[in-house]
Amino acid sequence: MSTPRILLDNAADKLPSPDGIALAIMELWQDENTTVDQLTQLVQADPALSGRLLKLANSASLGSRPVSPINGAIVKVGMKTVGQLAVAFSLIDKEVDGQCEAFDYQQFWSQSLCMALVCRGLGRLCNLAPPDELFSCALMSRIGLLALATIYPHELSELIESTPRDLAGAERGRFGFDHNEVSAEMLADFGVPPVLAEPARFHERPEQSGYAPRSRPAQLTHLFGLAFRLSDSMVRAGLEQTEKSIETLPGPRRLGLSTEQVSEVLQQSISEWQEWSHLLDLPSPSLQPGAETEPETAPTTAGPETDDEDAHLRVLLIGQWGREHRLKALLDEARGVTAQCYSDQKEMLRAALQIRPQLIILAEHEDRETGNKLCRLIRSTEWGRLVYIMAIVDKSDCDQMAQVFRAGVDACIQSQIGLPELDARMVAVRRMLALQNTWQKDRAELRQIANELALSQRRMEVLSLTDQLTGLPNRRAALAAMKQAWSMSCRSELPMSVIMIDIDHFKRVNDTFGHPVGDRVLMEVAKALRAEVRESEGIYRMGGEEFLLLSSTGGIKQLVIAAERLRRRIAALRIEVEQELLQVTISLGLAEREPEHERFDAMLVAADKALYAAKAHGRNCIFYHRKQQVHHLKVPRQP
Ligand SMILES: Nc1nc2c(ncn2[C@@H]2O[C@H](COP(=O)(O)OP(=O)(O)OP(=O)(O)O)[C@@H](O)[C@H]2O)c(=O)[nH]1
Fold first, then answer.
1. Which residue from 87, 279, 331, 540 could staple onto 339, CB 3.0 to 4.6 Å apart?
2. CATH number of 313-437
3. ipTM of predicted complex
4. Is this model's pTM higher than 0.90 or not?
5. Which atom in ligand 1 lies closest to the alpha carbon of residue 516?
6. Which of 3.30.70.270, 3.90.1150.10, 1.10.260.40, 3.40.50.620 is the CATH number of 475-632?
7. Is the Cβ atom of 518 under 6 angstroms away from ligand 1?
8. Ligand 1: distance of its center to the CA of 336 in Å?
């Protein structure tokens, strides 16, 4: 079952990239034929990214001559890094002060970065994929968590507070999917090849991936898993503890790496991690043992949105300084206005990102086209789409007026404007902003309704796959899981097997004690079976008093012990009924995928035959089917 499409769309939609710039850059970045000019064009539409990109290009780590043009910076930093930066920055910009209260955005990004750097470092030793690709996939491999924090802020907050240790499990219970599934599907949506997107699904528990042990997907999953464990430990416990824990992690052994090699990668990643954290305005990771990363308060200079006509207006005034003194003085006098003035466009854009102005006034430029260009640039960004823009023009010049309106200006004023008119115009601005605000709230509400609908649809899907009496996944779910496991097993040539389990003489329970007691027995047996299965196995109620265990990674040989464990567990179960202790037994039939089985149904028929043989043999025993024959499994019985 995959994450509902609308949730992926809504999450991607809300990923804070100015006018989808991050995704557009990623698209370009994946195309080999992309030129620096194409990328430059996109980057330049995002002032924050441009500024930060330049900062990186000119930082000490890249050395040599400083660059100033964006295209020079892109050449210096490398097109791939620009793509990575675009995604990382754009996600941070808006999410840093998101609404999911229990979700630590700062720590999330700090850990994602650390994971990306460690993954790239380890990747250089393992040679599993180009290190830069490993970097960006690891950076985004927990993006599903950010998406859930964005689309279900309140629900996720509750889950983080109530079940911090098994968040994914709690999410599955609440939403029907977990953040790891969402991450993998979002990565696939971004166009990341499956071999690099799928590790996101299993990086928290690589042993559950079901991939053939030495296959490339399994190795990649272990690589992401190790990078995750190390980065998680780094943000929570610091370097010293993390280094000590390397020996206890299974990842290095699975990847053929020594403790020393992993430790070296960790050391190398740390200085880069600190540098990047600085660049991204994240709190500098602490290297002290046991020290948790202190979240810094996000710079939220923007005030609440204008709701009423008296609310305070944040105004930016841009022009060739000196000539606008009069206007600035008037704005200072106007009611409820805070105006800041800039003569430098870059400075103004930087300030705009910080304070999110509601009104921008463009002064007269000697060269009118410069003002128009600036207006078009503002309109091309996410925040700039909704800003109210006024231009100071000579109203007798009709051509000029037409040009400024075409560039995206909302209203024109004369340089000789007086206070009464300015005040009155502010009323109009406030009215427009209030309308916009209502519209945005309505949109957010609609989006929320769509998310809720998708969730309830998902819950219905989950219900349709769940047995109501026992809470186990039902026959439909079993068939779907078997189909999936079957194709994976055929591809990987790994064995897969099933156990058919049937309660013995169950009819007698019903006949003697009544149906409600029969139901209780079914529930108790289901509970005991569920408690016995491993994480890599699934247990299903197929109907009536019949259950199925599916192992997608092991054959009969591996299942024999599990089968005997289940048999004993149920035989030892005592269910209190009318002051009596009721005891039941089960019969079990095993089968595995064999070359003559064309489909998984054939394997099920084989398991059924084995079960039938177990019943015929006297029940409370195990039979298996192999090479068209049934065999009694003789396990030394315990009393
Ligand atoms: N209480 C209860 N009984 C059920 C449910 N579903 C099926 N049954 C009963 O399960 C019993 C199955 O009986 P049989 O198929 O004859 O099998 P059995 O008595 O277990 O005998 P063997 O399988 O041969 O050991 C029937 O009496 C069904 O009515 C259920 O959800 N609740």
1. 331
2. 3.40.50.2300
3. 0.97
4. no
5. 1
6. 3.30.70.270
7. yes
8. 77
